[in-house]
């Protein structure tokens, strides 16, 4: 029953040109994902794997619904009609105040250990990751798939909670994806990329970056034409700088 309903929702067409058709479809998918989280997560990933000829539009609908369901099942901000990335960034404070933003981002507690999304976090995360072609995504001119993939993977990590034993591994794998996608150019994709990096860094408390990531972040902070991307990059740089300072201070204490 659940599988048939899922297929119907994904494959439904806007035959009567309803203005709010996509919102209604997404809300129905989110309701289904939220009612039976683990069971439906397996159905969703199985459906995406079984039907690889889904159009990009339908895949984007599914990924968006997963991100919304993750927020619905946890204490994260409900996206409603706002930018889901903005909703999460607001929890971290104002990125324009780099030092305070970095400190806040570093100290913000993860979603509480017990939440309804935790059991299906890895199912969605690795299900989406295994079905994407990063090189193909890099070649896209509009960056739509990159934007939604990065946003959804990042929100999954935000929503997973510390009870998910694979959380560090998920964050590490997300950083690897981000490294591959650093050449991406469309503005929305760059913003999603920086958001994903921030989410991964937030989980990986011992991560201090590397030469490639450091150069990318500094370049983005100084030169990206999008103010939001620059602010996010500055915030992440401030976190990594603080971690380097803490590491050196601890090192000298032990000398």
UniProtKB/TrEMBL annotation:
Domain of life: Eukaryota
Residue ranges of every copy of the Telomere length regulation protein conserved domain listed in the record: 4-70
Pfam family, one: Telomere_reg-2
Recorded family membership: Belongs to the TEL2 family.
Name assigned to this protein: Telomere length regulation protein conserved domain-containing protein
Source species of the chain: Trichomonas vaginalis (strain ATCC PRA-98 / G3)
């Amino acid at each position: 029953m659940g599988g048939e309903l899922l297929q119907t929702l994904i494959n439904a067409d806007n035959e009567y040109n309803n203005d709010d058709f996509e919102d209604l479809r997404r809300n129905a998918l989110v309701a289904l994902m939220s009612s039976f989280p683990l069971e439906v997560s397996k159905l969703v990933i199985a459906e995406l794997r079984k039907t690889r000829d889904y159009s990009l539009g339908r895949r984007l609908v599914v990924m968006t619904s997963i991100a919304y369901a993750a927020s619905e099942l946890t204490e994260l901000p409900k996206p409603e009609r706002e930018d889901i990335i903005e909703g999460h960034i607001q929890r971290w404070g104002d990125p324009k105040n780099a030092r305070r933003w970095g400190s806040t981002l570093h100290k913000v507690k993860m979603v509480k250990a017990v939440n309804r999304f935790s059991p299906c976090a890895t199912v969605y995360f690795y299900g989406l990751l295994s079905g994407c072609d990063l090189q193909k995504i890099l070649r896209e001119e509009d960056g739509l798939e990159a934007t939604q993939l990065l946003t959804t993977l990042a929100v999954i990590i935000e929503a997973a909670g510390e009870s998910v034993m694979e959380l560090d591994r998920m964050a590490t794998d997300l950083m690897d994806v981000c490294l591959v996608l650093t050449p991406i150019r469309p503005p929305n994709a760059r913003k999603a990329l920086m958001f994903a990096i921030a989410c991964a860094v937030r989980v990986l408390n011992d991560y201090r970056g590397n030469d490639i990531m450091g150069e990318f972040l500094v370049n983005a902070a100084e030169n990206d034409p999008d103010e939001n991307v620059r602010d996010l990059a500055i915030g992440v740089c401030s976190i990594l700088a603080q971690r380097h300072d803490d590491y050196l201070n601890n090192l000298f204490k032990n000398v």
